[in-house]
Recover the amino acids of this structure.
């Protein structure tokens, strides 16, 4: 089978007269000598550690922290959005909007958001592949290879080999997600020429992962296999991921010829098309998609049945805080563990970051915003590339859902230990952009790094059990097993609501199908994590979701314009104004950093919405860093009135709040003022029919050295 797939894949590559080896370093890497690698396991592990370091930097800088992920994935959905003015960041915002329904693709600058080698996602991902190929080739050439591969159980060497296979498959998955069809290199010294069909690459990766899966250790099964390495559980989850990707809708080129797209056995694939053509491409999925879902179901269930030391908490294991803080939110617990620089219990794989060094996107790019300076601030600057769509926050999130306040927050930090309302004016930090992401916040860290920005040390949470549960539920419903699908949907949903209030049956009914309910739930579970855009693309639910958020946003803005408020179907009301006041929370409550709002305290303007505030003791944290910090005053927490209910600005309640020291502040009124940003540029000119141009173009150097062309309407130079 393996030989068949290799042959078919190479045969279907586009012919190229120019090798891409000089640019990619995939065809002529320094091959690791097998005798050297196998002189001892420590040497072999050192070679793999070097590959992990390449992957860590690539992942953080290009595909799951900053870079292309930061530019489109993290901000380009019905849930997430950008904070700054559209015209200020065209290099990011046009890809985010599918290049204005494809019309802007021909004029998009090929270097507007990608530099040439080595500073781009493409070259960096191929560098990961090159390192993985060197290790794989060396191990395949070793005399012990057949022995450890035929042993039928894991060993140190088979585990290492599996990690290299997993790295290569992971890098190809990311390449396909961002670029579509790409060159394929699978062996050191073999040139990758032209483009290979993504479906062949998917099939090959799946088969290779299936081969190594039983020969790898689960997390914690061997003391050396931690959540910072690719484990058997990760490979099981990765098989599921790639199967769902391969089975899903994607935009494919029509200019490559009718027989270009082949599976791993060399058979021409037939497709089911959704919508209409756009820029010589179509939006379609493989006709054999259910076969891929069946494979996903098998491996995802294997991960669920024995997840190693990964733990899905359906209750919060924490007791009440020493000052009376209420927790009782297992979803909150996962992100608190990450903020505390731990490998979170629910994680299957996290790539490692080190506090005080490097470039850490969490929370600088992907977390709660701060207007602090770049150094010696409390907390330091958090730019906040991604924000939450206000119509999603107000109109789609159930107010009882414990995930809402963990995912999103209406306040940020001044950088001097004080909380600040974030206006809807276009801007970054806590100066604007509206509702911020909230899962990562240096206020929440036990030991935040105050010496410099971008160095929090929070790991990258690349795979966790909640994804496995929801992916399994999706695979179950597609293959006709709605009973199992509902079981795992309910596990996710019920831990996020007060006991007995998840209403899973009613939720499924309101979504219209089990499939839509699972994908909708996935949106709530991963809000603010950049999962939503790709999920909507591959499931074909993209047009429906975009229309829904556009309609909801328009209704909200028109209601605010006409009445000064708008009430959504879930009972939440957004108003033109809110009333705010800074209070001394530490004196009143004993703490500044709030947790889960206690039941019955929803009218408390400091405790609700929950999971916000400020670090309890910036002075002590500064002292540990040999710095000096002193609060300007002890009023650090923001009390907010009218956030979810309408207060008549000319009424008695407003007058009473003013007398009590509250200030009337523009809130929803700024959405009306900036409606072009929040509505017109929201998936700018998308027509709900044409194939979405969600991919990134190849740069001139890639084109000239790779010997292929750009598609999807992009220019060639």
């Amino acid at each position: 089978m393996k030989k068949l797939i290799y042959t078919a894949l190479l045969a279907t590559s586009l012919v190229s007269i120019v090798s891409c080896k000089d640019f990619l370093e995939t065809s002529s890497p320094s091959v690791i000598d097998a005798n050297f690698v196998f002189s001892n396991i420590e040497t072999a592990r050192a070679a793999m550690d070097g590959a992990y370091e390449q992957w860590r930097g690539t992942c953080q800088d290009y595909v799951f922290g900053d870079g292309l992920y930061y530019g489109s994935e993290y901000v380009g959905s019905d849930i997430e959005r950008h904070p700054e003015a559209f015209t200020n960041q065209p290099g990011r915002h046009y890809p985010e909007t599918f290049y204005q329904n494809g019309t802007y693709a021909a004029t998009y600058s090929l270097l507007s958001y990608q530099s040439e080698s080595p500073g781009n996602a493409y070259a960096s991902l191929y560098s990961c592949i090159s390192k993985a190929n060197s290790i794989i080739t060396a191990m395949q050439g070793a005399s012990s290879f057949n022995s450890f591969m035929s042993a039928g159980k894991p060993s140190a060497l088979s585990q290492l080999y599996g990690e290299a296979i997993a790295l290569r498959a992971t890098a190809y998955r990311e390449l396909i997600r961002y670029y579509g069809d790409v060159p394929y290199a699978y062996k050191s010294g073999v040139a990758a020429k032209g483009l290979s069909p993504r479906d062949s690459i998917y099939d090959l990766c799946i088969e290779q992962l299936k081969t190594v899966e039983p020969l790898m250790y689960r997390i914690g099964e061997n003391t050396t296999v931690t959540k910072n390495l690719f484990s058997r559980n990760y490979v099981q989850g990765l098989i599921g991921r790639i199967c769902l990707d391969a089975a899903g809708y994607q935009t494919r080129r029509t200019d490559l010829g009718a027989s270009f797209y082949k599976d791993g056995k060399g058979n021409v694939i037939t497709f089911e098309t959704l919508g209409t053509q756009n820029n010589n491409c179509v939006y379609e999925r493989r006709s054999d998609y259910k076969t891929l879902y069946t494979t996903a179901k098998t491996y995802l269930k294997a991960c669920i049945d024995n997840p190693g030391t990964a733990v899905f908490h359906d209750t919060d294991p924490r007791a009440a805080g020493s000052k009376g803080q209420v927790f009782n939110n297992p979803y909150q617990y996962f992100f608190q563990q990450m903020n505390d620089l731990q490998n979170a219990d629910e994680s299957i794989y996290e790539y490692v970051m080190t506090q005080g060094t490097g470039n850490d996107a969490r929370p600088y790019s992907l977390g709660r915003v701060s207007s602090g300076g770049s150094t010696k601030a409390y907390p330091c600057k958090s730019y906040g590339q991604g924000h939450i769509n206000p119509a999603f926050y107000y109109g789609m999130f159930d107010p009882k859902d414990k995930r809402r306040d963990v995912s999103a927050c209406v306040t940020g930090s001044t950088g001097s230990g004080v909380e600040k309302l974030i206006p809807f004016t276009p801007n970054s930090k806590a100066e604007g952009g509206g509702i911020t992401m909230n899962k990562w916040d240096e206020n929440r860290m036990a030991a935040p790094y105050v010496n410099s920005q971008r160095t929090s040390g929070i790991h990258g949470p690349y795979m966790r059990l909640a994804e496995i549960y929801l992916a399994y539920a999706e695979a179950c419903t597609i293959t006709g097993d709605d009973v199992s699908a509902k079981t795992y949907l309910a596990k996710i949903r019920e831990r996020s609501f007060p006991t007995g209030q998840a209403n899973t049956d009613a939720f499924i009914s309101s979504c219209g199908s089990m499939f839509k309910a699972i994908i909708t739930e996935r949106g709530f579970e991963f809000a603010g994590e950049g999962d939503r855009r790709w999920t909507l693309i591959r499931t074909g639910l993209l047009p429906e979701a975009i229309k829904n958020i556009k309609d909801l946003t328009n209704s909200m803005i028109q209601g605010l314009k006409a009445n000064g408020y708008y009430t959504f179907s879930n009972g939440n009301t957004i108003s033109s104004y809110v009333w705010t006041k800074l209070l001394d929370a530490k004196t009143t409550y004993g703490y500044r950093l709030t947790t889960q709002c206690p039941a019955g305290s929803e009218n408390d303007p400091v405790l609700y919405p929950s999971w916000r505030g400020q670090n309890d003791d910036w002075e002590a944290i500064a002292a540990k860093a040999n710095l000096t910090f002193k609060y300007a005053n002890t009023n650090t927490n923001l009390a907010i009135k009218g956030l979810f209910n309408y207060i008549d600005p000319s009424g008695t309640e407003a007058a009473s709040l003013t007398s009590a020291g509250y200030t009337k502040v523009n809130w929803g009124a700024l959405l009306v003022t900036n409606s072009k940003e929040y509505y017109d540029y929201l998936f700018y000119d998308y027509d709900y029919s044409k194939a979405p141009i969600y991919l990134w173009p190849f740069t001139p150097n890639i084109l000239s050295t790779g010997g292929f062309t750009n598609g999807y309407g992009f220019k060639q130079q």
